[in-house]
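Pilot study result, target chain (97 residues):
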Amino acid sequence: MPPENSLKDQRHPQQDRDRNTLNRLLREDPNELNLAELARLRIRYTGFPGSRDIQKDLDQLLEKWELTEDQLFEKTREIHATQKVYTVRTNKKEDWT
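Predicted structure:
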């Protein structure tokens, strides 16, 4: 049996920054960048054992934008295939977490 503390929800290390992004997405309409951000966050939090409030809001945003996860990923694949959504800033490290 796993230790008791491993059964508790975890806090994602990027949760504060992701919360700010998600709050912005909840206020805005879908566009190429916002769709890409939603897809990125869906991937990050899928299967993550915690951050339930973020996961709930990601579900809510899909519903608000009238998209399934499959539709979201299809749209963002098309976006990434035809244009650059993200630009790398030289004064910031890339976010691979």
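One observation from the pilot: The mean pLDDT is 88. A full batch analysis is planned for the follow-on phase.
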